[in-house]
Design brief:
This protein has 233 residues and is mainly beta.
């Protein structure tokens, strides 16, 4: 119950801050607003294993994925900016079921859509320099899709072919995450355009529940590399 209340509080806070930022007038001078659009590469750190019975092993991992991110930052001073962002990536999540006694293994894959809505502080470390180097913390409310793993294989057990056609459905709860970001923007020309690169770490987990109500928490904790453009005005 506390978890869901925290989610609602964060969403309300994000909405209020977004409204406040949009209501602020852009002051004279360059660089008050920064809009970024980036391609992202997400590397999840998911490697979970369990042994529900002697000889049985269940393991879950995730593949790297590409995605997109957009954000808007209002720089309130030479040193500090507030950034709101949204990202979307769809890594594959793999489950492997092994029976080491029979020498049988079954693998299934489903894609997981992850959409972090983030708010962060950027501390700009090079005011007045040719390039803009910044770093800072952020919070994110991560929207996750559910998982559906389907196994449709024929295995040989003692010379007898056995057809296995099963679907494992898992609901995935949205998560309140946190992390840190470091980025650099390099100007291109003199019209407010920059090349933009960002490196992020986000601490988040998959809270998955099967149809019987049993649940597990799996740490996802991705590294996120983003490359794109920034426009400042």
């Amino acid at each position: 119950m506390l978890r869901h209340h925290s989610h609602r509080v964060l969403l309300i806070g994000l909405a209020c801050l977004a409204a406040a930022l949009l209501a602020m007038p852009a002051t004279a001078g360059d660089g008050q607003w920064h809009l970024r659009a980036q391609a992202v590469w997400v590397q999840p750190d998911l490697d979970w294993r369990m042994s529900p019975a002697p000889g049985d092993v269940v393991s879950v991992d995730a593949d790297d994925a590409w995605g997109l991110a957009v954000s808007g930052e209002y720089q309130v001073s030479d040193l500090l900016g507030v950034e709101l962002g949204i990202m979307r990536a769809v890594p594959d999540v793999n489950i492997l079921l092994e029976d080491t006694l029979l020498g049988v293994s079954l693998k299934a894959t489903d894609d997981l859509t992850m959409t972090p809505l983030s708010i962060g502080l950027n501390f700009h470390l090079t005011p007045g320099q040719r390039f803009d180097l910044y770093l800072g913390p952020f919070l994110a409310y991560v929207l996750y899709s559910d998982l559906e793993w389907r196994v449709n294989e024929t295995i040989d057990v003692g010379g007898v072919p056995i057809v296995i056609d099963e679907t494992l459905r898992m609901s995935v709860a949205n998560d309140l995450a946190y992390g840190a970001a470091a980025g650099v923007d390099i100007p291109v020309g003199s019209r407010g355009w920059y090349l933009s690169g960002t490196l992020k770490y986000m601490a988040t987990e998959l809270d998955i529940t099967d149809p019987d109500g049993d649940s597990e928490n799996l740490s996802l904790d991705p590294i996120i590399v983003a490359i794109g453009v920034r426009y400042s005005f």
